[in-house]
Specification:
By secondary structure, the chain is an alpha+beta fold. It contains 6 helices and 5 strands. β4 and β5 form a beta hairpin.
Length: 204
């Protein structure tokens, strides 16, 4: 199924909490909200797949991606230490390309529904300043798909900065490895062109 191929590009077991904590007591309170919003939007995208185009689904998913992900931070982490030396115009162009690709890939891959469901674990695994929120995608056929979302606070709001597939495959680390040779050989502009090409391919 196409949406599974998207996930394969990227689940963490979270410890139980003996006594429920209030929002004031738990610094990570609210970390599940972006994951729940994204999960709901992806199921809705799948259910609308037979009557909407990729561009229509992308238009609906775009605002959810903007609210759920910290794409500016993700973009900086992909580039690494060289980010500070990149001209602001090239930074903005790369961020726009990564957003376009992210939205287009979700719109293309989450386009068919046959009874799938996504459940989000309310327990949060706190790792330093980050939180990990686990979700499970169940399918009528095939094993469940376990994902963990790594979130960090930006402006007081939790945002996704990485997605881990089965607790071992990091989307962020995979992208950094895939893009490193382009950055090293030809710089940020070449990477922007490459990612825009990927986005255009996904949008067809």
């Amino acid at each position: 199924m196409r949406f599974v191929r998207l996930l394969a590009g990227f689940a963490f077991a979270t410890p139980g909490i003996a006594v429920p904590a209030t929002a004031a007591e738990l610094p990570s309170a609210g970390a599940t909200i972006p994951v729940q919003a994204l999960s709901l939007a992806l199921i809705e995208s799948m259910k609308s797949g037979t009557r909407t185009s990729v561009s229509e689904r992308a238009e609906r998913l775009g605002p959810v991606v903007d609210r759920s992900f910290d794409l500016p931070l993700t973009t900086r982490l992909i580039v690494g230490q060289k980010w500070a030396t990149v001209p602001s115009g090239e930074q903005a162009a790369l961020l726009a390309a990564i957003r376009k690709m992210t939205v287009a890939e979700y719109a293309k891959n989450f386009s068919h529904w046959s009874g799938e469901a996504i459940s989000v674990d309310p327990k949060v695994d706190v790792r330093g300043s980050d939180s990990l929120v686990k979700s499970t995608l169940t399918r009528p056929k095939g094993d469940p798909v376990i994902l963990a979302y790594r979130l960090r606070q930006t402006g007081g709001q939790w945002r996704i900065i990485d997605v881990l597939y089965n607790g071992t495959i990091s989307q962020l680390a995979t992208r950094r490895a895939d893009y490193a040779h382009i950055l090293d050989a030809n710089g940020v502009h070449a990477l922007t062109v490459h990612i825009n090409e990927l986005a255009a391919k996904a949008a067809r």
